[in-house]
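My current task is to audit a protein record that another person submitted. Thanks in advance; the entry in question is below:
***
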Amino acid sequence: MTENVDVVLIGGGIMSATLGTLLHALQPDWKIVAFERLSDVAQESSNAWNNAGTGHAALCELNYMPQQGDAPLDPAKAISINEQFQQSRQFWSSLVEKGVLDAPSTFINATPHMTFVRGEKDVAYLKARYEVLKEQPLFAGIEYSEDSRVINKWAPLLMQKRRKGEPFAATRVPAGTDVDFGALTHQLFDHLTASGVDLRVNHEVRSLKKQKDGGWLVKYRTTIGRTPNEIKARFVFVGAGGWALKLLQSSGIPEIKGYGVFPIGGQFLKTTNPKVVAQHHAKVYSQASVGAPPMSVPHLDTRVVDGEASLMFGPFATFSPKFLKQGSMLDIVTQVRPHNLWPMLRVAFANPDLITYLVSELVKNHRKKVENLRTFMPTAKDEDWTLIDAGQRAQVMKKDPVKGGILQFGTEVVSSADGSIAGLLGASPGASTAVPIMLELLRKCFPEQFPGWEPELRALIPTFGEKLNTDAVAAAKSTAETAEVLGINA
């Protein structure tokens, strides 16, 4: 007989782990089953070495507050991203206090967030950005300097053998973080399985079919032996990275029409040389090259994974037609449908700079990539750095009434009109804002239950439903409390 459950989660990443944790806290009586096609969770985009681990709070990422011609800088998006990350921090803090998560240092560590720019134009922009953000409560403590001696104290590797007379500037927020989303995902799933949630690894979902009763028939097979089976669920969440598109297409919901994804891989330079690592404790972002997409923003990051510190620099784009690192070479072709072909073609015609950027990245050898690193770290030596392959990003392409099709750099939830199925497409800031993304999904997909859930949500996220940035006292109180619990006092 076909098994019946309340919720099916597809994909063993941070999104499914977060949604599963929220649903189990809100409805402990619901039966939840999670499917992961690989042998363990957090092996794709949530894996520590497949992402840069930045706790995205817009403290250092310039693409959240771009210069738009001569218009005054608008901090709205940067504030929104920060507000979202504060919700994630509050949720994790509550889970630490409840014993759901292990010692905070196993998944989050204090790491200053910096921005470093060169050239008169970018220096002027960074100073203007600082002047706007320093007035915002959630950006309290941001520092700015054009003094090489000050920047040298913040991040010595940026200043050693720097050419004299070159205009440069930096901002610094000591309260930044480095997050190991792989460890966090494992801990959340460990709690879920200990609480009765059924996690089935080595199980691949093949198709989704709507039933007359409003539920979903989920057909799957084991990856070892390829034994087919099926399960019925009242609600399905597709958190399968790039494969989410393919599964949502198989569901037949009209809301997925017009969507496609463009896969872009990445590489990072990594060093574990203790002499180099000891001289840098920060995540330092800069401006993307002229003509390069926002996801190409170069950054030199401190990473702490399994208790070991290292440095990463990148990203360097690669290309693969796969939607996942362990996907199919046919992914980019099999996504094509009559309804998304034109939007995807329009994206291709409208973004020749992206193609040029990808080609220029693909021809770079190891020496050229270390030369890019030297714009940040003039003393970098080729032999200290090795290349590692990061995760696949599936950037969203969708219909646009004016342009025909657009390429979107961000995350987007696609859900059916009746709220019985939802999936997540896109990339950064993704993992860092998993909690608010899943909260909005709950609000949209469970409108009848949501009002009754709000008291429990406020217990988990004290400022749920509020805007911290409008209240300096509340912002300071919240950030101080979560910093204390998570052990990330600057």
Notes: The longest strand covers residues 260-271. The CA atoms of residues 56 and 432 lie 6 Å apart. The chain has 15 helices and 20 strands.
